[in-house]
Structures are given as C-alpha cells and as structure tokens.
C-alpha cells in the first residue's frame, strides 16, 4: 500500500475516533421532516422519537463502512475511485460542505392582503362562535364530545399558536371572514380533531362527512341550479352529466373567496379539461362490466384559505389536514354509484434554485372514480 493510501487510512481512523468522541458527549439531533415549511416551528406539541437519531450511530456506521470500502488491495495500490470518495468524505467531515449545500431557507414571499370570505358558503365552512358550522358539528357527532367542550379546546389552541401565524400572515380582524384568521381557525380545529380522533378510519369518516354535509346543504339551500339539484338528487348519473355540477360547486368555493381560482382537468391537455374533463368512454368505464373500471380526474385549487394550516400540519408529519374541496367533490362523484378515493398535493409553480425553498400556492387533487365491485 503506497503512502497516500496509508494517509487515507490514518485519516479514517482519526475521523472515526473523533466522531465517536463527539457522539459520546453530544446529545441526539432532532431531525424534523419538511422543517423549512411549517409556520409554527416553535409550536410543535407532538414530539416523536422517530425523528431522533443517535449521533454515534449516525456517524460511526457510515465511517466504518467507508473503512472497508476505501482500503485498496496490495495488488492495486493505485489511487482509485474508492480513495477519491474517501478523500471527499474526509474533506467534507473536517471542512464542511460547500457553500451551496448550506444555503439557508429564503424568506417567503410577502403575504398578500387577506381576502374577505363571504356568504352563502362561509357559514357552513366556519362560524365565529364555533357552534353551527359543519366541521365542529361533525367533530362533535364523530367523537361524542359536546360542541361547547370542543369549541373551548379549539379557542385555547388557536390562542396558543396565533402569534406565530400572525407573524407570517397577519389578519386584519379576528373573524373567520378574514382569510388568515379562517386559516388559523381551521388549523386549530384539525389539531383538536387529531387529538380526539386516533383511529385513521374514523378520521377519514370525519373528513368525508364534512364533504357529504356540504354538498347536501348546497342542494337543500338551493345554492346550485335547478338542473344540478335534480341530478344530485339521483344516484345513477353519468360522469359526463355531472360536469356542470362540478363546475357549479367549484364556483361556489370561488365566489365565497375560499380560493382565488381553480382548474378542472389536466393543464397540459385541453381536451381533458373544463366541460370536456369526462367523455362517453369514461361513462363506459364506470358503467360497463367490460371496462377497466376506474377514471381519474384532476382538480387544482389556487390559494385556498386553509393553505397555511394544511402546510403546517403536513410539515408536522401528518396528512390529516384541513380540507373542504376534496371531500365535497368526492361526495359529488359518488352520485354515479362509484367508489371515490382522492389524494392531494401542494404545488409551488416557481422554480427555486435553493432546494430548501418551497412556497406553494396550489392544492392539487387526483380523484380516482372506480366502479363498485
């Protein structure tokens, strides 16, 4: 083994002892997924041992592996790829990553002035008293906890996290008519819901019940056209027949200022968007026993009023986040007698060279409408 190889081996041994020594006196690191996105990094009540990594294990195991991989044989004493890798890791250990690897999270774009949410849909989504809106009523029904007791918990949690929310998205008045105060209240309700509903199946039932109630109220209160109401009172519709109903429901969310705009269908395929999002072949897939049995539908909601709270909960490691549009459209698609599942994702439309920067403004839904077996 030539001199550079011995030097590399010596560096590995020293580095291993050094890292183990640090691990012995150091405390475990908290590694929180999606750390840069949450609004409330100072308000994380749910600690988890899953995010704690012992520094001794974290450092010593990879270095031990490097020792085995980095030693050249006597027959091949020339400096090879393994030794180059070893040199890179040693430089990284003692000198740190290059500057571009340590870029801090950039400041988020300044928040726009809050929108004013309005009737007719707002009282169904949230109310200032936390008594009559659908989420608080459904939470009381699912958990068998009185509405008054739930409201007290929501108010207490909202008061606790309000300063952190207001720092990034200041509201103009403490009312759910204010977009950012609406967002804060949604976050508090879903945090209380996550504490009172531990069963994931019951959580799904809670979310879907919100959508079913919203759609039912839209029909009963005649928020929709007579043609849509007549269709939604049936359960044997075709997907192509329901397209105007879908658009009317989305228009309700937009006119209430819950969102700034929406897109129905694939943005890259004009033939599968808007009034053409479904066609006769889709109807056959759902109704015909010879069809594949499932159809996908894409929906984008831009600047939803519950976006901040949803991102915060997602950043805390949970997918149980505030949602109104998803379960409402799922309830609507069920009117074709199908089973409906959906997933949602957050989209940042701007390319940002710093991978730590993520400032989405879109909630993107994918619905899978499948023929019931």
| Radius of gyration over C-alpha positions, nearest whole angstrom | 27 Å
Low-pLDDT stretches are 17-38, 41-77
Largest sheet: 4 strands, antiparallel
> Number of helical runs?
13
Cα-to-Cα separation, first versus last residue: 68 Å
Structure characterization notes:
Helix content is 48%, strand content 10%. It contains 13 helices and six strands. Helix 1 (3-25) runs parallel beside helix 3 (81-95), helix 6 (147-168) crosses helix 7 and helix 10 (239-255) runs antiparallel to helix 13 (325-333). The longest helix is centred in the first third of the chain and has 23 residues, at 3-25. 31% of the residues are buried. It has helices spanning 3-25, 55-70, 81-95, 122-125, 134-143, 147-168, 179-196, 200-220, 226-232, 239-255, 280-287, 307-315, 325-333, and strands at 29-30, 52-53, 261-264, 294-302, 338-347, 362-371. A four-stranded antiparallel beta sheet has the order 3-4-6-5. A two-stranded antiparallel sheet has the order 1-2. It is α+β, with helices and mostly antiparallel strands and 373 residues long.
Keywords:
alpha+beta, two-stranded antiparallel sheet, 373 residues, 4-stranded antiparallel β-sheet
Strand-helix topology:
Blueprint: H1 3-25, E1 29-30, E2 52-53, H2 55-70, H3 81-95, H4 122-125, H5 134-143, H6 147-168, H7 179-196, H8 200-220, H9 226-232, H10 239-255, E3 261-264, H11 280-287, E4 294-302, H12 307-315, H13 325-333, E5 338-347, E6 362-371
Antiparallel strand pairs: 1-2, 3-4, 4-6, 5-6
Helix pairs in contact: 1-2, 1-3, 2-3, 5-8, 6-7, 7-12, 8-13, 9-10, 10-13
